[in-house]
Amino acid sequence: MKLKLTSVFAAFVLFAVFFVIAIEAQANTEKQWQFRVFLDDKEIGYHKVRLTPEEDGRRVSVEAKFDVKFFFITAYRYDHQTEEFWEGACLTDIQSRTDNNGEQLFIRKQPEGNNFTLETHDGKQELQGCVRSFAYWDPELLKTSRLLNTQTGEYQDVEIIELGNNPIEIDGRLVEAVQYRLMIEGRSIDLWYTPEMNWLALKSMTEGGYRLSYYPAGETF
């Protein structure tokens, strides 16, 4: 009996070691999210996120490009790129540029001591506490009440509502998902995550009354 218990204990320890190694390997693995973007039923572009672990945090690269055409005429063009650096749950550095249909916007984090000071196209501003952006890829976003808009530099109040299990149709099939709703200044953004809380889809209404939708590019769910 003693030998059997010893064997069981050894097996348990071995399992625990492999479990820890697996978690550490997963935490140190680069992750990517790629979405096809639709305006109503018309595909207009893409949104990509790449997360790269580094020794003291995570580097996140974001690229989004939309091109809306009516009768072969470009009515709207959007080009956005952001480089973020995160330490734990907080944003510590950010550089972004946006071409919003000809309007040039930018954000630059300024190295001013321990303060989170941003320079934007509208001037400088200083943010307090642990700053987070609209990082939909990170489910920790769902626990916050203020988020940084990486296009405009606005630090916006948000209300987050959990809508529970709500499957979503992707490429003609229903996918199990959990839905959340972000309320921002009277507007809403609906987000879907897999049961493992991996970002799956997004839907919102534009100011012009069009439906903006993100769906995974390829088998990413």
Which features does this protein show?
single chain, 221 residues, 13-stranded antiparallel sheet, two-stranded antiparallel ribbon
Characterise this structure.
This protein is mainly beta. It has one domain: outer membrane lipoprotein receptor (LolB), chain A (Clam). 12% of the residues lie in helices and 57% in strands. The chain is built from one helix and 17 strands. It has one helix at 2-27, and strands spanning 31-39, 42-54, 57-70, 73-87, 90-100, 103-110, 116-120, 123-127, 146-148, 155-157, 159-165, 168-170, 173-175, 178-184, 187-193, 199-205, 211-216. Strands 8-7-6-5-4-3-2-1-17-16-15-14-11 form a 13-stranded antiparallel sheet, with no helix packed on it. A two-stranded antiparallel ribbon has the order 9-10. Strand 15 (187-193) and strand 16 form a beta hairpin. The longest helix has 26 residues, at 2-27. It is globular and about 50 Å long. 15% of the residues are buried. Mean pLDDT is 86; it is low at 1-26.
